[in-house]
Design goal:
This protein is of the alpha/beta class. Helix content is 46%, strand content 13%. The model has no long low-confidence stretch (mean pLDDT 94).
């Protein structure tokens, strides 16, 4: 008998299982709308031109080597990442109360932040502090905070299924009723999975309650620039909360907006009350990193750092990001137009009202099952689709498939 005989088989991660099923499907018109990665109109991954250029610069730079980075990461990467989130003119940066931790992607940034909060937020060992995540949210949010040791993870109202939009009243009510010092995970832009974001006025309402009730803000910023095509617009909520005096965390990912999915480049931006608090926070985060991955990898961070710190490369990168964002916006407009042209039952305005990579279509689990089994169009059970999976070559087939599904399956 193996000492591991009693280890249960874990269920597969849903989105990767969906991709595996798609690969095994031999249907000539199959479409994958599940995985959260950008695709070109030829349905291929895109290496950003600016990334190719910077990779060549790195190869030719004889001053670079493979020595360990500092535990908290490449300094110029960390500072540039925080500036992208908060803005070059951020008063918090000028007051030296902003710091960063280079992490293994946005997930790593969430995990380091969660570990720190569980150990040090509002007193030591806060396993009972409520952590609120949106209903629905990215599936990993629950797991990251649970694995960090939090025992009380609660949903807050977000998606209004009937109106296919934001449940603002429910969200504000949950903020009012949450125990003081609760932690709220907020999507900075391009909410995953719904694609529905608060307006600026709604963000102000959210901030007012959170400030009054002493609630902690942990932003997940996985899609800056990718939602609207504007880095500044997509960071508006973060910058507003900072301007209101919040101490907060921001988990940043460069997977989408740099196309660096397998480099695992992330940053945890910390906005503290003052420089002294920041120094103590970072000293404890350094201890957490030391026992987690010890030192971060350099390649992805160097690509991002060189791009963000060179005005010419930075401008080129913003153009690359806008190219991706514009294609997503085009696919949204075309899908809605085609569904309306087919006379597909229901309203489809939400497709263009939503933003970012994902759209919550409103398809129910039975309809999703029909789409996969009968039409070979793969999407998440929640009805979430990745707009990047749509192309000018498959959008007619997808629209017709949705029309047939909605018409036949209730």
């Amino acid at each position: 008998m193996s000492i591991f005989s009693d280890v249960p088989q874990a269920p597969p991660v849903a989105v990767f299982k969906l991709t595996a099923d798609f690969r095994e499907d031999s249907h000539p018109q199959k479409v994958n709308l599940g995985v959260g990665a950008y695709r070109t109109d030829d349905c291929q991954p895109w290496v950003l031109p600016v990334v190719k250029k910077v990779e060549r610069l790195i190869v030719e730079d004889d001053s670079l080597n493979h020595e360990y980075l500092p535990i908290l990461g490449l300094p110029e990467f960390r500072s540039a990442s925080s500036k992208v989130a908060l803005g070059d003119d951020s008063p918090a940066i000028k007051e030296n109360r902003v710091g960063g931790v280079q992490c293994l992607g946005g997930t790593g940034a969430l995990r380091i932040g969660a570990e720190f909060l569980r150990r040090w937020y509002n007193g030591v060992n806060n396993t009972a502090t409520p952590v609120y995540v949106s209903a629905p949210t990215w599936e990993n949010h629950n797991s990251v905070f649970a694995d960090a040791g939090f025992k009380d993870i609660r949903p807050y109202h977000y998606w209004d299924a009937a109106n296919r939009g934001l449940d603002l009243a429910g969200l504000l009510d949950d903020l009012e009723k949450a125990p003081e010092h609760s932690i709220f995970v907020l999507h900075a832009c391009a909410h995953n999975p719904t694609g529905t974001d608060p307006t600026q006025e709604q963000w102000k309402q959210i901030a007012e309650i959170m400030k009054r009730r002493n609630l902690f803000v942990f932003f997940d910023s996985a899609y800056q620039g990718f939602a609207s095509g504007s880095l500044d617009k997509d960071a508006w909520a973060i910058r507003y909360f900072v301007s209101e005096g919040f101490e907060l965390f921001v988990a940043q990912s460069f997977s989408k907006n740099f196309g660096l999915y397998n480099e695992r480049v992330g940053n945890l931006t910390v906005v503290a009350q003052d420089g002294e608090n920041l120094a103590r926070i970072l000293s404890q985060m350094e201890k957490i990193v030391r026992t987690t991955w010890s030192n971060p990898p350099s390649q992805g961070a160097r690509i991002v750092s060189k791009t963000l710190n060179c005005p010419e490369l930075f401008a080129e990168w913003k153009g690359n990001v806008k190219t991706m964002a514009d294609r997503v916006l085009l696919m949204r407009d075309q899908l809605k137009t085609k569904l309306q042209g087919l006379g597909t039952p229901g309203t489809w305005d939400h497709i263009t009202q939503q933003i970012g990579m994902f759209s919550f279509t409103g398809l129910n689990p039975k309809q999703v099952e029909y789409m996969i089994k009968e039409k070979h169009v793969y999407l998440m059970a929640s009805g979430r689709i990745n707009m990047c999976g749509l192309t000018t070559k498959n959008i007619d087939y997808v629209a017709q498939s949705i029309h047939e599904t909605v018409t036949k399956v209730q």
